[in-house]
């Protein structure tokens, strides 16, 4: 649910940011629009300049070149009204503009419109200068307000901005809650898939298509899980059945071979052949046992008998068993337990850990036929304990070291049989790790890492 909350929180913040950005864009657009279109209105100093450029010589009025240019750029027509109301000068004057005005007429158009022509006026030494624009070109109306209203404009603008911000946040929160309501079933469904739980999500609304796909995926995964379970069960039962069926005749072969091996009436050559039969039969029996154990460990069918064990005593016991069973002469086995490693206690299945250490020692013996020095050690690490089996033999192949941490167990199988796979699976059910490495000087080491 934390991931879903994070998604919803980010969606709310993103929506709020978008809404606030839209508010800012609208305000910027409005301000730009006001400046752009209000900027096209004639400026007072331009009207004054035009007025200054209009002069009279012997009763004849003339507009100089500069004033004419300014007038033609900004206005459509112009006229000068004398103090008695007569038009005494004009330029481009439309035909529907009167030539005589009363004081009332001047008062009515001086700031707004004259016969629907937007006009601007300026005081001239000889009267009133009137400058006009084409009809429907400028909007000029009076907006009247009290001083109190104008004084409250900053506060009103601030309140308007705050209202916009709050509206944006409320909208973002609403959208976030709506999104949360729609995505929560999807989130629950997705998190339920790895747990192999059946899904039945509602298929209506905007997320209906995704819900339908998740429901179908759940059904497919459930079917696949059942098929895999049936296959694994069949394989486990087949391995157990074959192992059981082989065990009885194999025991008979080993028994007869042992009798022939110890029969003094047989020639030495035949006794040796019987010994080889017994040894190879014993090897087959061990392989069957390994196959059963590997299968049980893979499907967590091997019962765990956890006990508090001294790792120092454990490795010493494994070494004693090998030495008492008659370790061949080309090989040597030593134990290295520092003083600080005698105290810690390890919670584990002692029989399985002994099996792992035994497999590693057997692996060193099998792959170094000319002999090697094998060492068992236990050390304390920052996270727990490390049981290590090392030798000075030819080492591991590079592909085994490179791929030993992945899911593919085929590099472990190779010519090492099931021994290393069993070691890895034993460590897995103990929640530990296994590290294969080649030593810099010579040989290899396998570390069993336990967290305490």
UniProtKB/TrEMBL annotation:
GO MF assignments: kinase activity
Classification via Gene3D superfamilies: 1.10.287.130, Histidine kinase-like ATPase, C-terminal domain
Subcellular location: Membrane
Catalytic activity entry: ATP + protein L-histidine = ADP + protein N-phospho-L-histidine
Keyword Lipoprotein included in the entry's annotation: no
Source superkingdom: Bacteria
Pfam families (UniProt xref): HATPase_c (PF02518), HisKA (PF00512)
Recorded coiled-coil stretches: none
Keywords: ATP-binding, Kinase, Membrane, Nucleotide-binding, Phosphoprotein, Transferase, Transmembrane, Transmembrane helix, Two-component regulatory system
Residue intervals passing through the bilayer: 12-35, 160-180
Domain Histidine kinase positions: 241-452
Record-linked CDD domains: HATPase, HisKA
EC top class, as a word: transferase
EC number(s) stated in the UniProt entry for this protein: 2.7.13.3
Annotated PANTHER family: SENSOR HISTIDINE KINASE GLRK, TWO-COMPONENT HISTIDINE KINASE
Protein name as catalogued: histidine kinase
Provenance organism: Acetobacterium wieringae
């Amino acid at each position: 649910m934390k991931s879903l909350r994070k998604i919803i929180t980010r969606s709310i913040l993103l929506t709020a940011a978008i809404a606030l950005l839209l508010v800012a864009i609208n305000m910027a657009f409005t301000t730009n629009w006001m400046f752009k279109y209000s900027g096209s209105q004639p400026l007072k100093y331009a009207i004054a300049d035009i007025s200054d450029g209009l002069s009279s010589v012997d009763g004849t009025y003339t507009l100089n070149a500069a004033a004419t240019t300014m007038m033609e750029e900004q206005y459509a027509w112009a006229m000068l009204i004398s103090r008695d109301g007569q038009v005494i000068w004009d330029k481009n004057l439309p035909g529907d503009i009167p030539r005589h005005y009363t004081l009332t007429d001047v008062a009515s158009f001086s700031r707004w419109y004259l016969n629907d022509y937007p006009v601007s006026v300026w005081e001239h030494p000889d009267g009133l200068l009137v400058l006009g624009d084409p009809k429907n070109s400028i909007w000029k109306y009076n907006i009247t307000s009290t001083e109190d209203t104008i004084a409250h404009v900053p506060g009103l603008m601030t309140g308007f901005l705050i209202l916009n911000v709050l509206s944006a946040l409320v909208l973002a929160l609403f959208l976030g809650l709506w999104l949360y309501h729609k995505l929560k079933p999807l989130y629950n469904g997705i998190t339920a898939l790895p747990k192999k739980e059946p899904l039945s999500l509602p298929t209506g609304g905007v997320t209906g298509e995704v819900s339908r796909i998740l429901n179908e995926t759940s059904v497919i995964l459930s079917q696949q899980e059942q098929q895999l379970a049936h296959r694994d069960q069949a394989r486990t039962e087949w391995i157990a059945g074959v192992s059981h069926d082989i065990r009885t005749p194999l025991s008979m072969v080993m028994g007869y071979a042992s009798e022939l091996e110890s029969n003094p009436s047989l020639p030495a050559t035949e006794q040796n052949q019987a010994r080889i039969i017994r040894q190879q039969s014993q090897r087959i029996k061990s392989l069957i046992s390994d196959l059963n154990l590997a299968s049980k460990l893979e499907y967590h069918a091997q019962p765990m008998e956890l006990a508090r064990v001294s790792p120092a005593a454990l490795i010493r016991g494994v070494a004693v068993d090998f030495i008492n069973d008659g370790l061949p002469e080309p090989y040597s086995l030593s134990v290295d337990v520092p003083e600080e490693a005698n105290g810690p206690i390890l919670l584990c299945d002692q029989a399985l850990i002994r099996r792992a250490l035994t497999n590693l020692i057997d692996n060193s013996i099998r792959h170094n036929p000319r002999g090697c020095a094998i060492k068992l050690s236990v050390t304390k690490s920052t996270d727990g304990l490390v049981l290590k089996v090392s030798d000075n033999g030819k080492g591991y192949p590079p592909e085994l070291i490179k791929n030993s941490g992945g899911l593919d167990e085929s590099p472990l199988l190779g010519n090492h049989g099931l021994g290393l796979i069993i070691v890895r699976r034993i460590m897995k059910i103990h929640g530990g790790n296994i590290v294969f490495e080649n030593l810099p000087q010579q040989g290899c080491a396998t570390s069993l890492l336990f967290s305490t």
